[in-house]
User: Fold this.
Amino acid sequence: MLDFLNALPGAVSQGLIWGIMAIGVYLTYKILDIADLTVDGSFCTGGAMFVVLFSQGVNIWLALLAAVGAGMLAGLVTGLLHTVCGIPAILAGILTQLGLWSVNLAIMSMKANVALNIINPDVLNRLLVSLRFVQDVGNGARPFYQHPIFVVGIFTLVIIGVLYWFFGTELGCSIRATGANQAMARAQGINTRRNQVLGLMISNGLVALSGALLSQYQGFADANMGRGAIVIGLAAVIIGEVIFAKVFHNFGLKLLAVSIGAILYYMVVQLVLSLKLMDSNYLKLLSAVVVAIFLSVPYWKGKYFSKPVKRGGVSRA
Amino acid sequence: MKMRWKAGAALLALTMAVGLAGCGNQSAQQTQSGTQQGDGKTYTVGIVQLTPHEALDQATQGFQDTLKEEFGEQVVFDYQNAANDPATCSTIANGFVSAGVDLIMANASSAVQAAASATGTIPVLGTSVTEYGVALGIENFSGTVGTNVSGTSDLAPLDQQAAMIQEWCPDAKSVGLLFCSAEPNSQYQVDTVQAFLEKLGYTCTQYAFSDSNDMAAVTQTAADNSDVIYVPTDNTVASNASIVDNICRPAKIPVFAGEQGICAGCGVATLSISYYDLGVTTGQMAIKILKGEADISQMPIEYAPQFTKMYNQAICDDLGLTPPEGYTPIPTE
Assistant:
């Protein structure tokens, strides 16, 4: 148990990083009402873009920006496949994700795995986040503001702030309207196609940013790194919602709940690994089972446990 | 009321998690019960392995057997497997570092990268990595990482592979080097082996194909223009060895391979390394580090201690080649 508590800061850091991706998933899944599977590919695109540029000496912020840009491009492709080519959203996402596999390999010069030279202290010190910093801050070798929890926490808060502002603007509101009721939104003269494309771009930009941060944190980008990301994102969204739905009504707080959901998810993963509750080969199954349960509960609740409609309902109609 | 259902759902999820734990590994329980016996120091060794895979499993086994033989009950293993998810390697490494293990054994590239990211102090020994310079992004790699990272490489020494070609085909003049351009490891091996072969007096030409679609055409060109073909540990060839075999065997061009799997499919002979032995070598490095006899930052990357010279019986018969002394046939399944 002590091992688990010691491992918590690392687990929380990793959860926060994935939380940014989960916020991206929240935007498509909850706000746009599209299950966007592009994320499995664009997550790695962000990581690959970042590692390659950063290794070539590009400024870290520019490299992060390029990663976000690459992710937004991926979202653009999915959006255009869906809106212009009329491909169902889920299939459009799968197509982009599949194509991205090759694109990601091309970004990494046809290697399946590229590493940051973290052995070199100069490279290490230039990084914003690293798993190494968790221990370094713990034993006083680095100041607290280099702790990944602090750095990624700031990232998350800024992102939530910007999204909160954006989704309050006219454009942002029209995106929300698009997801809430497409037919009605179109009837109001909202360009729903453009909004879907825009939403997918923002979402995948965030996913790629998360991938870029994770590749810094773990010290490498790998062609496999985004596999199953959508399920982790959904798990975070759903865990956050189930726990905080009653408390958080504000849009910004809902995004925060998603981030906390991701943290909880990684705490559970670390708990399972630290306490050896089960073979780590079953982790993916655990994720899938947890997400399936949390997705089913609201449905079952509505179907089997809602109170029967009382007589006299007509008066409320 | 609603809150109660949520609590119920959470409880259900937890129950299932614990239920799954039933399938968990018994080896972990065994190792946990083995602590604190004898009077010496007890060492905890964390093992992070990328994926369950026959070769990787053997390396881990060799490593564990070596340490157990040396320390007996005084060594405790914490074996964790990332199920081929590179991100899980980080989570596992984080767990090891915060638990304060005495040494981390990282099996495969992603595992080494994650462990090197996780700690700058706890010794990290890698294994089953072909080239540490490539795996850790170090330019002009000298053979010693120089920090808390070292380990063993699964590469068969390329000078010995060049010597093997000379042993079989002393009269040959030109060697075609066949590989997939998308694989940096193959490029590295081909460049290195070319230097050794040219020193032995061969003329070398590189034949790179981009994927399995143009592989047959490139292989045909290589077979037409070479006396002998060499193939490194190339994954694309490994998956499509029959293409090479179908072209080279009728043309009577012997193929020498970088590893046993490819040789079984299309090669005449190979130097085969045993991943178990590689794990044993890694284990011996770990013993020195744990006993304080060696400083990991001074330890160069080590290679497998011995290689088995192997040949492919069926292809040798077809080409009319007689294996030199010291070669054993690749077992046919």
Remarks:
- The mean pLDDT of chain A is 90.
- Chain A has one domain: 2-112+119-296.
